[in-house]
């Protein structure tokens, strides 16, 4: 029964997010997660498979800037690891 004690944990509101069949654009991902333009550029490079060092070189910023942006991406996407972040962004980009 829905009222049973073992079901109480599941009695919370849910959110259904649907994405169009076409790949989610960077702007859509930025809007979903509230990314800054710099965070969006970094996320796109990470999804392409670049390392943090390669991202810093490509964007011509310091590694500390990249690490700061990466921490912001983790916070905004509720992820904890770079692999988890990239997996999430790649899946949403292919939805």
Describe this structure in words.
The protein contains 5 helices and no strands. The protein has 95 residues and is an all-alpha fold. The protein is elongated, with a radius of gyration of 17 Å.
What key attributes describe this structure?
95 residues
Q: Span between N and C termini?
A: 34 Å
Principal-axis shape:
elongated
Q: Poorly predicted ranges (pLDDT <50, ≥5 residues)? A: none
What value does the Rg take, in angstroms? 17 Å
Percent helix, as a range, is 55-70%
The largest β sheet comes out as: none
Order of helices and strands: HHHHH
By helix and strand content, what is the structural category?
mainly alpha
Layout of SSEs?
Elements: H1 26-33, H2 37-47, H3 52-59, H4 63-77, H5 82-93
What's this entry about, in short?
This protein has 95 residues and is mostly helical. The protein has 5 helices and no strands. It has helices at residues 26-33, 37-47, 52-59, 63-77, 82-93.
